[in-house]
Batch of 2 targets.
Target 1
Amino acid sequence: MIPTDSDTATDFSLRALNLVNSGIIVLDAHHKIVLWNGWMVPRSARAAARVRERSLFEVFPELRGSRVEAAVLAALSPSADGASTTIPQSESRAPFPLRETGSFDGPRIDQAVTVTPFRDGEQRYCMIEIRDVSGAVEREKRLLDHAESLRARSYVDGLTGIANRRYFDVALDRELRRAQRAKGELSLLLIDIDSFKAYNDHFGHQQGDACLSTVAQALAAKLKRPADVAARYGGEEFAAILPDTSLEQARLHANAIRDHVAGLALPHAPAAHWPMVTLSIGVASFDRERLHEVPALIEAADKALYAAKRGGRNRVVVDGDASA
Ligand SMILES: Nc1nc2c(ncn2[C@@H]2O[C@H](COP(=O)(O)OP(=O)(O)OP(=O)(O)O)[C@@H](O)[C@H]2O)c(=O)[nH]1
């Protein structure tokens, strides 16, 4: 602290300034430091006597060209209007090389800096206030991390906008339990785009992604009941969960979906089995004796899907069909 006056009132004010829980620097019109409060001393590792009467920009050369310098020059110009300039931490994270007390090479304190011009008679000054906002920055980071992890764990597939595999797993488990409890029906469709490797090879991965989205939307549009679930099962494979739907009803649904996508006449690669984008679909239904658990139901639908592929693609095979 630099005593500027020995009278009691000034002494009293200076002592109070030394107790303030933020950095206070006062500069004269020549950018010379005339006040450096106690908060600054341990965090800058500079005693008041060492900086007295020195230019702020000599003490901290890195401030040259910074937002802080611009704010100081504006505050000390004869036309300064007395208004404060705040430099939020988001714009300039840590303009002053200040560290936690006792940490000589630790990370800098995150700072919010305010520069305020004032006059004493004809003399122009400016006060720089530096607040430690590290705690708020840390809290904000934690909130962002949390939001990010919620997003990552959410139930929507980022590419196609329909439910993701995570949601599918939860929904199938829930619907299977419900079917068991209610002695109801439940069908599962596993849906695979035919010759999709050839599609990617011919049109490129980006157009492949667009094709996946189109098929996903077409699938979602064909499922009308609120409890039906269309999901991306993985890669170029989709799934549909159809509660209260028998095997034969599911066969009809699957054929309608297959027809609809083939009818879109999306051009396929020359090396593909069909000239347009087509689907192979395997269907299986909950069955109290045989298919009453998730893995068994999925395996049955998958076997039917494989049979549809073997049978020439662009077709539906239902669990129990001779070819499945
Ligand atoms: N563009 C794109 N391609 C994907 C994505 N996920 C999986 N694929 C591609 O889908 C293709 C699937 O190929 P395969 O499993 O060999 O099957 P296929 O070519 O569709 O042949 P069949 O299923 O036998 O008709 C692979 O080339 C994967 O790279 C994705 O998110 N985007």
Note: The pocket of guanosine-5'-triphosphate is lined by residues 159, 192-198, 200, 205, 208-209, 212, 235-236, 309, 313 (CB under 6 Å).
Target 2
Amino acid sequence: MAQYTRVSGSVGLITLQSPPVNALSAAVRQGIVDLMQRALSEPEVKSVVICGQNGIFCGGADIKEFGGQMSGPPLIPMIHAIEAASKPVVAAIEGIALGGGLELALGCHYRIAHSKARVGLPEVTLGLLPGAGGSQRLPRLIGVPAALDLITTGRHVTAAEALKFGLVDQITDHNTVNVAVKFAQRVADQPLDARRISTYPCLCPSDVAVLFEEVMQRVRRTARGAIAPIACVQAVRAAATLPYNQGMERERELMATLFTSGQARALQYFFFAQRAVGRWSMPSGARWDTSKPRPVHKAAVIGLGTMGRGITVALAQAGFSVVAVETQEKQLMEAKQKISGMLERGAKRRGVAPALDKINYGRNIQSVADADLVIEAVFEDMALKKKVFQQLSAVCKPSTFLCSNTSGLDIDQLACQTRNPELVVGMHFFAPAHVMKLLEVVYGPKSSPLAVATAMQLGKKIGKVSVAVGNCRGFVGNRMLKPYLEQALFLLEEGATPEFVDQVLEEFGFAMGVFRMSDLSGLDVGWKVRMADGLAMPDPTTGQPTRLRQGRRYSPLGDLLCEQGRFGQKTGRGWYQYDKPGSQVAKPDPWLHSFLDEYRARHALVAHRIDHQEVLERCLYSMINEGFRILEDGIAAGPEDIDVIYVFGYSWPRHRGGPMFYAATVGLNKVLERLEHYYQAHPDVPSLQPCHLLRKLVASGSPPIQKWREVIKKVRSQL
Ligand SMILES: CCCCCC/C=C/CC(=O)SCCNC(=O)CCNC(=O)[C@H](O)C(C)(C)COP(=O)(O)OP(=O)(O)OC[C@H]1O[C@@H](n2cnc3c(N)ncnc32)[C@H](O)[C@@H]1OP(=O)(O)O
């Protein structure tokens, strides 16, 4: 909806009214069309101002409308009519002007922005391009290089940057609407021909062809298979090379292809999934909107290895006072130096002062006594962690929240070491912890809603996407990784190479294939866990590595590499070889290929030809099957939680929406059928056995992902 008021006698003020972000819904578009006609027909009105209610100009098209039948007046003719108007139209931009919101502003003759406003064309992040003239008007207004940057990245720019680009005409610290109204009065009688951006020539640098080629190459390299960034470059190229009307036609064609693509649907699903994870719930019924967090002023981190350092930096950068504890003097000094360096580099990038004074270092656990929340980040060893939790419980205030950065150990066992187990939760960060966006907040059976709410809020404050998950081995992310890694090893046993498996996964869109990723993380990490679990040992009778553990197929390949000191990048050898320890350039290793041949011969395994389809289906469907088990067990509340974890924590390609959304797009019956096929071929691999929830969803007619929760509820109630 939109409201019309006459201000100062001669200015027609149109206010967009569609909370929370004044998106351009059908009703809003209808309102703009009607009220523009009214303003143009009233003789007393000499100029028009368009603004948004509640200090927000416009968040763009209403994304919720994309899924259904579009109705109401279309955006493009509406914006053309504004540009063609006989009276000056001024956009008063407060808060945000994004996507269709900025395109609307570009159709106006002038743009006045508040100094705190942000503008941008983020359509690419939704699998689209600025399809309401944005791809044609923006390069005409600010030039091709700047427009390519904004449109292909979707980044938001500040009002100051927008002014520098010439994207807005003026910025103000005062009431933007008042300033825009005065401005509109001043320009009421001025000619408008020079203010219609669609009539501008598109000024191009002399080497524009080279520029487009370079940008296209960069975009293809980084897009990981996403099609929207490429279409964005093509649309801007049309602006640079074609007259406006033909450019608009090209924009329309490209947009039509994107709009109906699976990628746009996946990215739009993911937009809402990111927001849905904030509305967490626990099986007890506790929820985000009924559980209040307690403020945290002072936080503490115990253990300053790689993870502890990253967590300390993330907290200090967000303005928290942090006590950082490392018991060994040498490690403490080293950590202090590294943390200061990280803070200084981060501050330089953001143009702010480094938050060095936010951190107090100590060697004694006593120094965390008055912290409101402590995050333990010591080595991944249950006995050690238990000891730390006992000590923390003894020294901390009774109200202190005690959190563990474990990547998969039992939170309940840690909670049992403390006086107040209800204040214990897991806070599973991902390395590097000051960079990676994901945080799994893990509640155990004793964790209180207060503790979950507080950890979730802390995560938000330090800029993380936090997902509340239940307590089980590996939580959500690492639990699903297990069958994925396992299948990758089985594929090597059966004839594949690490290079081939990685190539297939990277073509699918992962930033790194499973073996490159393992080399980067360090093969010894999983090896230590398997040793602690009693898995990575040779058969006591034969001394040979056994391919069967606890009645299930087991691949000792990773263990055998570790026994050779091949820990990945850090030792210069792993699934690949590297020029030197620490190098990141992976090269195929002939030694590894011979090793695989010998291994197969020793175990009488006959290598067969493994194709793309088998790699993808076995790695991904086994992981997805585990995802369904996680939903069935109530460890994740809904498929969105899993998808957000996988995109932010495990480089799952965002344009595929996440593993559970991917399963829905492939078709649940197909996933089920292929799992049945592979399970029949490998009956000693339980992770390939289709789980009950998947069967139930298929039996229920494979409902859309938004309806899965209803089936999940039924399945859980039957268990
Ligand atoms: C052939 C077809 C031709 C069509 C041509 C027209 C095409 C136009 C393209 C577009 O305009 S696409 C949309 C472009 N806009 C965006 O991408 C903006 C998306 N929104 C955001 O980035 C953020 O929400 C925000 C606006 C910066 C606000 O962030 P904040 O952190 O303050 O709040 P949120 O929690 O993110 O959002 C609050 C609430 O609002 C909902 N919402 C936000 N934007 C939209 C939108 N454009 N449409 C519908 N709903 C929107 C969001 O989902 C939240 O609600 P929820 O209930 O919590 O989910």
Note: The mean pLDDT is 96.
